[in-house]
Design a protein that fits this description.
Largest sheet of chain B: 5 strands, mixed
Oligomer: heterodimer
Largest sheet of chain A: 5 strands, parallel
Radius of gyration of chain B: 46 Å
CATH class of the largest domain in chain A: Alpha Beta
Number of helices of chain B: 9
CATH superfamily of the largest domain in chain A: Response regulator
Strand content of chain A: 15-25%
Structural class of chain B: alpha+beta
Distance between the termini of chain B: 28 Å
Strand order of the largest sheet of chain A: 2-1-3-6-7
Helix content of chain A: 40-55%
Number of domains of chain A: 2
Strand content of chain B: 15-25%
Radius of gyration of chain A: 18 Å
Shape of chain A: globular
CATH topology of the largest domain in chain A: Rossmann fold
Distance between the termini of chain A: 10 Å
Order of helices and strands of chain B: HEEEEHHHHEHHEEHEEHEE
Helix content of chain B: 40-55%
Order of helices and strands of chain A: EHEHEEEHEHEHEEEEHEHHHEE
CATH architecture of the largest domain in chain A: 3-Layer(aba) Sandwich
Number of strands of chain A: 14
Amino acid sequence: MIRYFYKKKLKLLIIEDEIGLRESMIDYLKEEGYGCELAQSLSEASQKLELYEYDCLLLDIGLPDGSGLSLIDSLKKRHPKTGLIIVSARNSLDDKIEGLDLGADDYLAKPFYLSELSSRIKSVLRRVKFHGQKVLKVGLLNITPESRQVMVNHQPIVLTKKEFDLLIFFVSNPKRILTKEAIAEHLWGDFADSMDSFDFVYSQIKNLRRKLLEKTGVDYFQNVYGTGYSFNTNE
Amino acid sequence: MKLQTKINYRFLTLLLLVFLAAGGILYVALGLVVSENLDEILARKSKKILQDIENKPFDINRLTTEGASILIKPVHIYNKHVEFSDTVIQYRPRHEGLGYRQMKFITAINQQFYEITLLTSRLETDDLMELVFYFMLCLFVFIVLILFLLNRWLLTSIWHPFYKTINRLKHFKIGSLKPVMFDYSNVHEFSVLNNSLINMIQKAQADFNNLKEFTANASHEIQTPLAVIKSNLEIVLQDQSLTPKKHQQLSTAYTSAIKLSKLTETLLLLSKIENQQFLGESMVDLSQLIRNRLSFLDELIEFKKITIQENASQPFRVKINPPLAEILINNLIGNAIKHNIENGFVTIESTAEVLTISNSGHELELPSEKLFQRFSKQNSTSDSSGLGLAIAYQICENANLDIKYLCISKIHSLMIAPK
């Protein structure tokens, strides 16, 4: 599925000590077409980084043998083209700020949605590997993430900011069921908890679906038993 | 009632009773002494009169005596009895009469019985009684004054450690990390009081901290398995071969896992705030922060058809931990939007002293004093955790801010002001 975006199989290094979480991450990401490798500790991660080059790193900050933050500096010097997403417990805002300052490309708070993780990885890869210049061809859609443009047959589709975010989120997780909780959090971050945003999610998807249907004549969205939605291009 | 007032009241009542009794006794005793004195004078005079009568033939009409009036009345029956009594003679009608002591006896003059009444004025003795009364009154006032001053002095000096202890207790917060100290007192009772309080507070603080730690630890320990449940369910839900029924069941489990995960997350945050684990404060313009948040939410606000009114005459700047300020504003704005009605409004008013966030909404079913308590929510089925305002309250508490809730005709207002 990932070749859909890129020619070669992309390699990820997952540095995470929690076994249950690690396995579900690998399961989800492998199905996306990534090659996943694993490190359970800081020392193991350093060893692997000496030997191989990865496209993207998922780095848990709270590791048994130290803070993942100590790895960032050497990684960015050695492999500047490797994307880096740091993962830490929610509410540890210091970690977030420090990690991003040190050169991490993105930050994800635990616990996260796997669909969100996948979307973040793709976004980081686009930025780090292709400097955001990549045009995503999805079905009849030509999406330029950097300029936030969507074209169909050389005609632009005008989307609101949230509709565009939503489209990117779906396109990053093709054929996956995105739960309404994951969508709400993707759009609103922590705000999703403090208000009932599901109604709004429905209406945004409805609008986006209508706009795409009008221009392309194809309905890409599928409602899945009230759990969420999936985006299918039938390719 | 203050201790001083209470003691003063008691003293005053007791003194009044004592003085009334003493005054009464004194009055009666003095009256008796004075009467006896006057009676003696009258008796002496009567002796002289009798002597005069015996010694020479005597014209009854010219009988006089010095210092006393005399009344003579012929009677038919002789009576040996001599009578002393008090009487009042009114000289002019509708005037106060004058008090007299009188002595009545019967004697024979020229073979005729006469009742002789000797009268002597009580005026001087009445003056004396009055003097005694005023003296007693002055004494009473004087003693009351002395007692009042003495009492005040006692309370400020001897009771001083007690008041100090009370003051410490008043400012004591069980969640505060500072240990409570009381000054040493050489008064046994006070030192016992202080020691008992210290023991009690230490016990309460230890229990409180244990409970807090338990909440934090439990939330933390629950977090990881929940994350595993959540992400695994997310994967299983992708399975296209699931029957709709199975999918629905898994979806319900997934939603509940998310709720639980958010709940523990929030509890963890709350305990972190309570434990003051967010360090570092700087001046933050909360009104500006609100503006940023609102612009982030404008699509949602538009969708809910809510009007935003802003009346920021001055920025509201406070010293607060910036991430906490963000959480605070998120919660307050989130609440104002979530608990709003269709075509409702949110009003932001800010001055240098107070920040007010008001929103239209439904009647509050919850007693307003419970609003800032944990797990207090409108109805048990609602999706909210009931922790949002508890967090807001705790953040304000940490930043030394006052947060108050007010509801006037379905308009809910939350006001934040420096303490």
